[in-house]
Queue: 4 jobs
Job 1
Amino acid sequence: MSDTVQKPLPEMSQVAKPFWEAAREGRFILQKCAACGKHVFFPRIRCPHCSSDQLDWVDASGRGTVYSYTVVVNNAPSAFINDMPYVVAIIQLDEGVRLLSNIVDCDPAEIRCEMPVEVIFEKLDEQFSLPKFKPLT
């Protein structure tokens, strides 16, 4: 069954379009509020801190630490069965925001909270590349 089930693609809203376009180019960007100076993730039309609509897209470091994670060892039947075991993690970015992603390029047993990580991109198709994270070496 896993050979016929396609993994879902992200939905590209107008608000998130710059994020996905940058990811496709291998760049990691975040919104930053011009009014209060705080970074924002997930893409929004207003700052969740001060309600300003002055959100700009800025280059981000792509570095952070593992805030929390889980190792998925049983997800059948699904399009992700060939990926198991895989790690789903909340990444605390250096810019102060958190995002949900995968940790790759390491043994899941080696992952720890507060472990430093950096972004890499996995190309899905011509439109989407997913930001994922690997241990910082």
Job 2
Amino acid sequence: MPVMAVARFERFFRATAGLDVDKDDLKRYSGFVDHKLYDLLIIARDTAKWNGRDVIEPPDIPITKGLQECMRDYRDLDEEIELTPILEQLAAHPPLDIALSEASEQRLVPTVGAISVALARAFRMLDPKARNPTSVHWERAFRLFDLLL
């Protein structure tokens, strides 16, 4: 990740949850986002197929009320921090056996942004005193999100 991108993510985590992250955290973050986005797209694929379609449409992507709220918060933060160009790279996904509509593709970056906001806030909930997420915090966040998303 370029130095400029690292600085933006540091600002993002600080602004979202008062956390200080380092390069190791950003590697974990990238893996986390990739994993969760893939999980959401697998559910979307299954929903589209269940409905007899060979294209994933936006309603197929399972966005909860909480993620919708995080999406709005991400948009506000993005205006200040400008993470969208970086998240576009993270929103790239492995090929599925089904296509995504253009509208669904456009929804991926805000979805990744929402997952990012939710993750930062989850760290704060898991340990309100934490300043820098440890590997234990990351493991707990992964398990929590695997349970809920």
Job 3
Amino acid sequence: MLFFATVEAVPVPSLKKHHLRRQVAGEEIARWTGILNGAGLDVTEDDVVAFVMSASKKAVRTRWRIVRPFRRLERRLKMGQAWGLFSYTDNHPGRLIVEGSVDGSRWTVLYPDPQHNDPRLAATLVHRRIRGIWDDAGDRPHPGGLYRRWVDWLGRRVFAEYPELSQVRVHFEQLTVRPPGSSKRVGAPKSMHMEVRSR
């Protein structure tokens, strides 16, 4: 069973065309096109996309053929592995920012702020189950209804901890991470998925 759980966990992305419209995907496609052309292969970005889409379909199909016969037993024993482990690195991760305001004009960072972090709020936000909601949503172009419901829940929790606040603002700063020695400029963080809740 361990073998089949491992096969399920192997990061085989089930890609769709819309996944390749993300910024990190575009950068990777351009990078690999350059690498392949530098190795003497005459390929375009469209060729790379076609190959990746085809390889993804074949890999998903192969994995399904391997794990399908054991799926019923696996579910009965509750041994399934439903998510891929670290399927890709993201050069544009989102960093969660939680802010509070007394009057709606000035905002104070509540998380992450190492000097004034409320340890209870920080412990809640980094808990693996809670982080699983916001960390996944923060890197998506459209985080969806689960993210908004999570912000509702977080807003109620912050208002309970900070009775002086009238508003809570939650958003992500999209950072750009470059490897050491990279000559590409890193721009200012971009704010994404801004949600405000009022008491």
Job 4
Amino acid sequence: MEKEKSKIAYLAGLISGDGHLESKTNRVIIFSSSRNFSNFIVKIVKELGFNPSIFFDLAGNEWKVAVHSNRLQNILIENFGLVKGNKTLTMNIPKLDKLDIKYFIAGLFDAEGYFELDKQRYYRIRLSMKHRKMIIFLYKQLIKLGYNPTMFYKADGANVVCLNRQKEVRRFKSEFNLFHPKWLLIK
């Protein structure tokens, strides 16, 4: 990752999926089941000049990276539409330039994205969230970037964006800076 704004856009995407801004403090939390990925998040946060801590939450069975910073919280709120507390239905859609939108999307996919193997042969990349406006935003952004995503809603209230075409799956994986180790399993 290059410049500060792009790193923060990536973190905003991560937090939009697997994190939150605490409502009564200045603490920013990002979760991950992967220790290696959590260490990567710590590295990015340190490069931005913040002092993170990392700990394992036994109750949640996940690693958490915490940053106490009014400045970081304000940047995430003012520039990326994140909100304090429960963001599931209240988060605003960010307004980003073309470069930063890719970093935001990469962070979102590192947090909430996954892949499936269809018919033991074809990969598809998906992202599922309950925040319908965010899924619609993601769907439209992927179209603007030249992809042909599909979008559907599940009975449990989740909204899904999917890339099914193998050429697009390969393009997505090479075009976006995905850092979570789960993406290494796509061959």
